[in-house]
Amino acid sequence: MKKKKQNTLGSLVTTFSVQAFRWRHFFLLFMPLCLVVLGVAGIGYWRALYGYTNFGPAAAVSWGQPWFFSAAFLTLPVLLYALRRLYRAHFWVKVHTEGIIIHRPPSRKRALRWEEISGISTSTTKNSFLGLKSGPRHRLTIHPSHGKPIKLNHKLNHLKDLITILKKQVYPRLMEPLKKRYQENRDLHFGALTVSKNSLSYQEKDIPWSYIQSITAANGNLIIQLSPQKKFEVPAEKIQNMELLVNLIKKEVRS
Fold it and tell me: Beta 199-202 vs 205-208: how paired, if at all?
């Protein structure tokens, strides 16, 4: 069933991965590391054989054992590094013309058509340490119509480009139904926020539009200004389809 669904997503457009694994990585990284381990074990074998031939079993154990222990000690970090690289290589998102396939090991692949995505939450932060600021770190949460949300972070290469693709494909499909429901004066849920033609609701508090001076986005938050001295901030990652929300309510806010 899942294989059949994946085949209906159309042709592959692009792939986003945490860390791709190519044959050149095997020859340039893993083979030299394996040769080092085998070399140390080989020296141990030669030392043990020489000791046994010339001085007996006790010398074979005494001369070979340190090298065998060293080879075993080196094997552990090489094995852990190999497992980490394999994990990262199997963490990817494939974008097709009709949807996406997400694989986050050890989970199974998750295939979603564009119309099966009901919401997108994003946030961007910048960390600093001793006055040094890192580059922007993006986070993405995909909300399917059915099932648990899928969270991705900056470890996925070019996540910002994936976010752009998702918004381009999903937002036009969602906007017209939202506008229709809004005109019908029905409550619309955007994650932590709920809006209607009369008010905005957050944490069980209804705020009439006339009380809101401005709504802006900055530093990973949606800032709702009630007066020059009073405002509250909602983390962007808790809001679904924030751009659609802002576009929908811009006429209700005075400035």
Answer: antiparallel
